[in-house]
Structures are given as C-alpha cells and as structure tokens.
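User: Teach me something about this protein's shape.
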Amino acid sequence: MGKRTKHIKNNDKNKPWFKRENSVRIERDITIKKIFLIYCEGENTEPEYFKSFPVTTETEVKAIGLGRSRTALVEKVIKLINDIEKDDNQEIWVVFDRDVKYENQGQEDEDFNEAIILANKNGIKCAYSNDCFELWFILHDEYIESAIHRTQIYDKLSGKLRFNYEKEGKGKDFAKSLYPLFLERLPFAIRNAKKLHLSHFDKECYLQNPCTTVYQLVEALNENLRK
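Assistant: First, the predicted structure itself:
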C-alpha cells in the first residue's frame, strides 16, 4: 500500500508520546496499513461514534454521513468506490437501519432486505440494525429478543441518560460523547448483539427484529486500537 504522510502538529509536543520520542519537534512518515471507509445513513450519531474509536496511527477511519437510506445508500457507495483505487487493506462498510414506518411497510421491508443483499454482492460490509442503530446502545445494558420499535428504544435511552434522547440526543456534539459514555459495557454489548444475530437462522431474509450487526464493525475497529 502507498505511504501516506501524517505530520505531527505543534500542539502534539505536550503529549506524553511526543516527549518520549524527542524533546524537539519532528516530522515523520507513517505508513497507513488499514483504512475503514464507513458510509452511514445518519449524519451525526453513527459517523461521530465510529470516528471516536482510538485507532492506531497506522489506521485511518473515514466515517461519512450520506443522508441516504438502505438501497439508495448502497447504490451511492457502489458509485463512490468505483472511483477510488482498490486496495486490499481497505474495509468498506455501510451503516443503516430498517426504521419501521408501518406505511408502505412491504415496500420498505423489501428495500431493507435488498440493500443488504446488494452490499454483500458488491463486497461491501454491512452494519445494519432492526429497528434502529440505537439498539446497539441498549444492548450494552440488557439482552432483548422481543420485537421492539425505535420509539421504545428512544424511551429506554431517555431513561438511562435522563433527558429526551429523540429530541436532544441526535446532535453532533452529543454524538461525540457516545463512545466514552458506553465504553465500559462494550464487551457486554458485543456478546449480546452476537447472540441475538446468531439466533436468526434465515440468512436470506434480514427482517428479524431485534437484530444488529454493528458489533461486527466494532470488533473490526477494536482490532486496530492503540495499545
């Protein structure tokens, strides 16, 4: 893979790792060995959460909110990746939800299912959630297997966080606090999400509720954390 240059910033000189290496400002080249390209349906919560993972200097995380959902998101990503140089060290992910709306539900469900199939066919990894991304945060505290709507999930989060999550918790500033906020219970969430995912046997239909594969992306990022 080609070498990308990362420059040490002036304000880095007070950091412990800088002082250990040299007392004088230096510049050095770092070879980027792993790139995560994460294309999200949401523009705040998901991108800011994934960008908060403290990955190594040899790892690059680009999490982008495209404001598109399901098949429209996957189709957009297919066009984007056709314009970039292919590299074995890249992992390309899409992140989106089912978001049950009840109106035109048959068509919405077909779109959700087809989006996952389309991503798989094009070598794109898929972190999907049914019903919504925030199911991932609920699984940090409890294992649930009964069908649940996002309004119920938002209510649970509101109770935990002690404010109205739906109205106040979806902004970019709060999204930046999500990783440290839930970090302590992360292993528990991975176990719960994996157990829930593996409990669904029909691999050609992805409409099982509740279910999330966000844990797979989290595990991949965890493999590249700073020690």
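Now, about its shape. The mean pLDDT is 87. Residues 98 and 130 are 5 Å apart (CA to CA). If you'd like, I can walk through any region in more detail.
User: That's plenty for now, thanks!
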